[in-house]
Amino acid sequence: MRILGIDPGLQTTGFGVVDVNGHQLSYVASGTIRTTQLARGDLPGRLKVLFEGVTEVVKRYQPDQATVEIVFVNVNPQSTLLLGQARGAALAALVSQDLPVAEYTALQMKKAMVGHGRAAKNQVQEMVRRLLQLPGLPGSDAADALGLAITHAHAGAAMARVGEVAELQRRQHAMYRSGRSY
């Protein structure tokens, strides 16, 4: 199975692709989609770049599933709204390519990767490097995306088994450790 992880951001969106064979993880690709070349006020243009960038990644690497980080609420509501719109562009690109999408919070991903939800970015980068046996540290946005893909590789199977036993409704499975899968 090939999993695409997306760490959404309005200026920089990270992506990471891993192959999963049983418990074996293999690195495929990672990188960032940047919108910094556009004017800060050009929100529609930035969202278009994100949508097209995620679509291109899906077409190039042909993942079987995708996972996206759930947005947290910032102190600044305007920042939260902008991040939510970037996340929406990424989600729209994924579902337009008929990919099943799972969602995890940053805390869930960090707990799965490092062992505690308040892990620093460099700790996530190091664990991703070790788990995927990379020669160097991936960038922080790409590492978060790879971390989401790895988290889904491990947690996704358990969530699927729970879904087989009882049909999960949106409200019920959103309560399953605050993760979501559609």
UniProtKB/TrEMBL annotation:
<comment type="function">
    <text>The RuvA-RuvB-RuvC complex processes Holliday junction (HJ) DNA during genetic recombination and DNA repair. Endonuclease that resolves HJ intermediates. Cleaves cruciform DNA by making single-stranded nicks across the HJ at symmetrical positions within the homologous arms, yielding a 5'-phosphate and a 3'-hydroxyl group; requires a central core of homology in the junction. The consensus cleavage sequence is 5'-(A/T)TT(C/G)-3'. Cleavage occurs on the 3'-side of the TT dinucleotide at the point of strand exchange.</text>
</comment>
<dbReference type="InterPro" id="IPR036397">
    <property type="entry name" value="RNaseH_sf"/>
</dbReference>
<keyword id="KW-0540">Nuclease</keyword>
<comment type="similarity">
    <text>Belongs to the RuvC family.</text>
</comment>
<dbReference type="InterPro" id="IPR002176">
    <property type="entry name" value="X-over_junc_endoDNase_RuvC"/>
</dbReference>
<keyword id="KW-0238">DNA-binding</keyword>
<dbReference type="GO" id="GO:0000287">
    <property type="term" value="F:magnesium ion binding"/>
</dbReference>
<keyword id="KW-0255">Endonuclease</keyword>
<dbReference type="GO" id="GO:0006310">
    <property type="term" value="P:DNA recombination"/>
</dbReference>
<feature type="active site">
    <location>
        <position position="69"/>
    </location>
</feature>
<keyword id="KW-0227">DNA damage</keyword>
<dbReference type="GO" id="GO:0008821">
    <property type="term" value="F:crossover junction DNA endonuclease activity"/>
</dbReference>
<keyword id="KW-0460">Magnesium</keyword>
<dbReference type="InterPro" id="IPR012337">
    <property type="entry name" value="RNaseH-like_sf"/>
</dbReference>
<dbReference type="GO" id="GO:0048476">
    <property type="term" value="C:Holliday junction resolvase complex"/>
</dbReference>
<dbReference type="GO" id="GO:0005737">
    <property type="term" value="C:cytoplasm"/>
</dbReference>
<feature type="binding site">
    <location>
        <position position="141"/>
    </location>
    <ligand>
        <name>Mg(2+) 1</name>
    </ligand>
</feature>
<keyword id="KW-0233">DNA recombination</keyword>
<dbReference type="GO" id="GO:0006281">
    <property type="term" value="P:DNA repair"/>
</dbReference>
<feature type="active site">
    <location>
        <position position="7"/>
    </location>
</feature>
<keyword id="KW-0234">DNA repair</keyword>
<dbReference type="Pfam" id="PF02075">
    <property type="entry name" value="RuvC"/>
</dbReference>
<feature type="binding site">
    <location>
        <position position="69"/>
    </location>
    <ligand>
        <name>Mg(2+) 2</name>
    </ligand>
</feature>
<keyword id="KW-0378">Hydrolase</keyword>
<dbReference type="GO" id="GO:0003677">
    <property type="term" value="F:DNA binding"/>
</dbReference>
<comment type="subunit">
    <text>Homodimer which binds Holliday junction (HJ) DNA. The HJ becomes 2-fold symmetrical on binding to RuvC with unstacked arms; it has a different conformation from HJ DNA in complex with RuvA. In the full resolvosome a probable DNA-RuvA(4)-RuvB(12)-RuvC(2) complex forms which resolves the HJ.</text>
</comment>
<dbReference type="InterPro" id="IPR020563">
    <property type="entry name" value="X-over_junc_endoDNase_Mg_BS"/>
</dbReference>
<feature type="binding site">
    <location>
        <position position="7"/>
    </location>
    <ligand>
        <name>Mg(2+) 1</name>
    </ligand>
</feature>
<feature type="active site">
    <location>
        <position position="141"/>
    </location>
</feature>
<protein>
    <recommendedName>
        <fullName>Crossover junction endodeoxyribonuclease RuvC</fullName>
        <ecNumber>3.1.21.10</ecNumber>
    </recommendedName>
</protein>
<keyword id="KW-0963">Cytoplasm</keyword>
<keyword id="KW-0479">Metal-binding</keyword>
